[in-house]
Specification:
The structure is a single chain. This protein has one domain: Arc Repressor Mutant, subunit A, CATH 1.10.10. With about 120 residues, it is an alpha+beta fold. The radius of gyration is 13 Å and the shape is globular. The longest helix is centred in the N-terminal third of the chain and has 16 residues. Helix 1 crosses helix 2, helix 1 packs across helix 5 and helix 2 packs across helix 5. Helix content is about 40%, strand content about 15%. It has a three-stranded antiparallel beta sheet, covered by helices on one side. A hairpin with a 2-residue loop joins strand 4 and strand 5. The two termini are about 20 Å apart.
């Protein structure tokens, strides 16, 4: 989960990072998604990655200082030590794109550069 938060939201405010973590955990809890964080993060639907960084072909690098903070955050979310304020968000995307699937979803909230849906 830490890698997912890092590559999807490392430049976002704390609430934005948390929301990405909640989306990941909310999917784990739903029966139509895999039962583990890793399986959710690396899941593909019709050969399309659920999280964009997973299918990127370029070498992804991690800045340790930021990643260590995100690892701690991921643990608090994973172990349920913080409440999900996203109202059960299951999806998100950057504000500068409009994927087809987004038109059939309800917006939960907007944080930083991301729109979250349930």
């Amino acid at each position: 989960m830490a890698s997912n938060i890092y590559f999807e939201a490392r430049g976002e405010p704390l609430k934005g990072r948390m929301a990405v973590g909640f989306v990941t955990m909310n999917r784990v809890k739903k029966t139509r998604y895999p039962d583990s964080v890793c399986e959710v993060v690396f899941q593909k639907a019709k050969n399309v990655c659920q999280f964009s960084w997973v299918c990127e072909k370029r070498l992804l690098s991690i800045r340790e200082e930021v990643y260590n903070d995100i690892r701690k955050l991921a643990k608090t979310i994973y172990y349920g030590k913080v409440k999900d304020f996203t109202r059960g968000a299951m999806y998100f995307h950057r504000v500068d794109i409009a994927p087809k699937w987004s038109y059939s979803k309800k917006i939960s909230l907007v944080i930083g550069n991301h729109i979250f849906y349930f």
